[in-house]
Automatic annotation (TrEMBL):
Signal peptide: none annotated. Belongs to the TRAFAC class myosin-kinesin ATPase superfamily. Myosin family. It comes from Dreissena polymorpha (Zebra mussel). It comes from the Eukaryota. This is Myosin-VIIa. Coiled coil: none annotated. It is found in: Cytoplasm. GO terms for molecular function: actin binding; ATP binding.
Length: 416
């Protein structure tokens, strides 16, 4: 707490020492009152200014982690209320929120520790969106993912936060934050997990940085044009890469229509880029269709459609794009390629699409849907780092599908 400086403290990250203080009481409830008593003791008649500052930092952190017992709560509130400094007032508010929202699972995250060490009680967190924009949002120790999502949705003017999720990108992983988790608990747990995994494999581990994304995860009850902001910021930009990768079954006529809209979204009424349209085909046409006709034929078709849409705004072009692909059975899917070895009637390489209809098995070349298994018919689902296993129908006599893939995650099924 500042009274006994550690010789190794200078080389440590901010939360290493606080972990030693908070981990035991988070595991053992009986120790929580002891922590409050020790901090209050440090803050009472302490003539060492630095020691007192450290004590208030700890009080700020502990009131955001857990509350004292009912027997001690009145005394803690009285102590905090008798102090005239701003941090004591902040601690009262934090403690009230902790009483409302519950106890954290993990010690304070590094961001929280560094914030109070720099005398900042407001933590602003940058969040990235699919349209390449970003914005800073306040995150508190008691903020759960659901609250965070609601704050973002309100600030962006979305009609609902339903179906949206926070995603944390760290190292080579992008993982959805469960809506009931405290935000900092989840990030803390994720970083610790990756750090331990890398340490055993590669020796000493560097400090990990992470980014937070807010995206559409569950594509149900969605009608293009109903929520303009959601369409413009999220739906268009999340669906465009799936089209260009060739995941959907798309006719040449539809591809031309969509390409003209994509160009209009990029450039509006600016026709100067049309000269280089052939060089841009990869940015406009699904990958599996680029060779379906000559580049010049594609160019002629796109030009004709683009001119027919004269006067359409870039925002309206996004909506029209969504209205076309919204009609497809694979709209709003999470896609991944797999290698399956259990059913000889299917190709060895399959494209899997998970959406509101269930799990769709798709032919990788024709993009025909070979089978759709509603979630009500899937009796078992499990996955590892390189595989997933699915049982359709009765657990004992149902059909099984075992697939190898590097992209699958149990989280794909969680929302359903």
């Amino acid at each position: 707490m500042g009274d006994h400086p550690s010789k190794r403290a200078a080389g440590r990250i901010a939360n290493e020492l606080t972990d030693q203080i908070f981990e035991p009481p988070l595991r053992t409830e009986l120790l929580r009152d002891e922590i409050f008593c020790q901090i209050i003791k440090q803050l009472t008649d302490n003539r060492n200014r630095l020691s007192e500052e450290r004590g208030w930092e700890l009080m700020w952190l502990v009131t955001g982690c857990f509350a004292p017992s009912t027997n001690l709560l009145k005394e803690v509130m009285h102590f905090l209320g008798s102090r005239r400094n701003q941090i004591a007032h902040d601690c009262v508010q934090r403690l009230q929120k902790t009483l409302r929202n519950g106890t954290r699972k993990y010690p304070p995250h590094q961001v929280e520790v560094e914030a109070i060490q720099h005398k900042t009680t407001q933590i602003l967190h940058k969040v990235y969106f699919p349209d390449d924009s970003d914005e800073a949002f306040e995150v508190e120790s008691s903020t759960r993912a659901k609250d965070f999502c609601l704050n973002i949705a309100n600030k962006l003017g979305l009609k609902s936060h339903e179906g949206f999720s926070l995603f944390v990108k760290i190292s080579d992983k992008v993982i959805s934050v469960p809506e009931g988790d405290f935000f900092f608990d989840f990030v803390r747990h994720l970083i610790d997990w990756i750090r331990k995994a890398r340490a055993t494999r590669d020796g000493p581990t560097p400090q990990f940085t992470y980014q937070v994304f807010f995206m559409k995860k569950l594509w149900t009850n969605l009608i293009p044009g109903k929520d303009m902001n959601a369409d413009l910021i999220f739906h268009y930009h999340q669906e465009l890469p799936k089209l260009l990768r060739g995941y959907h079954k798309c006719s040449r006529e539809e591809a031309v229509r969509l390409a003209a809209l994509i160009y209009r979204v990029k450039f509006g009424e600016d026709k100067t880029g049309l000269v280089n349209l052939v060089k841009m085909l990869r940015e406009l046409i699904p990958a599996d269709l680029t060779k379906a006709q000559s580049p010049d034929d594609w160019k002629r078709g796109i030009l004709s459609q683009y001119n027919a849409d004269a006067g359409m705004t870039q925002d309206n072009a996004k909506i029209e794009f969504l209205k076309v692909i919204y009609l497809w059975p694979t709209f709003g899917s999470a896609f991944f390629e797999v290698k399956q070895t259990t059913d000889s009637s299917y190709p060895e390489i399959l494209l899997i699409a998970i959406n509101k209809n269930g799990v769709n098995l798709i032919h990788p070349q024709t993009k025909d849907i070979l089978a759709t298994h509603p979630f009500t018919k899937i009796s078992n689902w499990s996955s590892g780092n390189t595989y997933f296993h699915m049982t359709i129908g009765n657990l004992l006599r149902g059909s099984k599908l075992l697939c190898e893939t590097s992209l699958v995650s149990n989280q794909l099924m969680d929302p359903f």
